Amino acid sequence: MQLSKKQKGILYSSCFIILALVITFWSGKNFYDFAHYETEFAIRENVVTRVEKFSKYSPRLKGTVGDSNIYVIEGAEPGPSILIIGGTHPNEPAGQVAATVLLENLTVERGTVYIITEANRSAYTHSHPQEASIQYFGIETPYGVRTFKFGSRATNTNQQWPNPDVYVHRNSGQKLSSADTRNLNRAYPGSENGTYTERVAYAITECIRQNNITITIDLHEASPEYQTINTIVSHNRKEALKIAAAATLMMESNDVSIRYEESPLNLHGLTHRELGDYTDTLAFLLETSNASQGKIRGAFTEELVLTGKDKFYQKAMEKGIGKILYAAPVSLDERVARHVYGVYEIIQAYNKYYGTEGLGELKVNGFPSYQDIMTNGVGNYLKEIIK
Ligand SMILES: [Zn+2]
């Protein structure tokens, strides 16, 4: 049978429409599945005292994707408290994985530990445009592979849109690039009725304020050429600087190369600036070197996230191109080990200087050591998920 020109046209355009629908459905399903995938954390029943929600502190988050958990581990004796924040930037996996290791291993004798593993949960529901990043990565554990998400630096546009041309930080009036409008670490101290990102920041600020949290540590990563990698950034309060200096010395003396830096007075919206200014907490931020965030990296693979190995960074270092401050490859094991060890030394320094006064010592046990994580791999310190 011969098809007329018109019939052929209808046939071709129908095929084209069907193909377009299949591609749309397939890619839509991929985005949908990623957005709805829930990362699991092992909550030890007799250790984790309670689980709070961000909406307790920032009510408008209730029922939304950003209503994250705050895991609370209380010691038998009251004392000082610490908040550990992971997952501010979901494209910096060591922060979340380190917070998870702490959640699944720490026990508290005296004082209280608060842990957030998904600070910006909305940012875990999408990927950063034009980065071709992976969506998930797996860590081998004795109980099988644990899956974590690799999300975006910014809140999803489903929760906050549009971006203004210039982001004006609410409290200081500081002007930043439009991209920082949805950046949780430029939104502090936040606002109860502000943008979505500001409401998330407000939940964390209020949690610290209402519970009088003594120490706050925000866990991050940055590209290998970024100035603050392998750094403890400290709020400028005298006590915080003293603790950062002592922790740096201890880490250096145990062959973990690190330095400390005072939070710049004029850089607003960040945890190490605003949480120290707006609450009584001693605020710190830790950074490690993450090649998958780097500007000169090659293909974005799961292996790159886990091993930090990238041939372009290696070439650049061999040839001395650019200012790569810390030699790649830096594995996820090493990055998590640094964060966990950094938290440990900050607590030790706090106890050394302030453990004999006021609230007394913060007694926390169960830290895997830097060497333990490097030798056995971080997966050995992730617990079994029991359903
Ligand atoms: Zn970050």
CATH topology of the largest domain: Aminopeptidase
How many angstroms separate the termini?
A: 61 Å
Give me the CATH architecture of the largest domain, please: 3-Layer(aba) Sandwich
State mean pLDDT (0 to 100 scale).
95
Q: What is the total tally of β strands?
A: 13
Q: Helix segment count?
A: 9
Q: How many whole angstroms does the radius of gyration measure?
A: 22 Å
**Outline, from the CA principal axes?**
globular
CATH class of the largest domain: Alpha Beta
Tell me the β content. 15-25%
Low-confidence stretches: none
Give the names of the bound compounds. zinc ion
- Domain count, please report it: 2
Helix content: 25-40%
Taken in chain order, the helices and strands follow as HEEEHEEEEEHEEHEHEHHHEH
Please render the helix and strand layout as text.
Layout: H1 5-36, E1 50-53, E2 69-74, E3 77-85, H2 93-105, E4 107-116, E5 136-141, E6 144-149, E7 166-168, E8 175-177, H3 196-211, E9 215-222, E10 231-234, H4 238-253, E11 259-262, H5 271-278, E12 282-289, H6 302-307, H7 311-318, H8 332-354, E13 363-365, H9 370-376
Parallel strand pairs: 3-4, 3-9, 9-12, 10-11
Antiparallel strand pairs: 1-2, 2-4, 4-13, 5-6, 7-8, 10-12
Helix pairs in contact: 2-8, 4-8, 8-9
Bound molecules: zinc ion.
Zinc ion is lined by residues 88-89, 92, 185, 220.
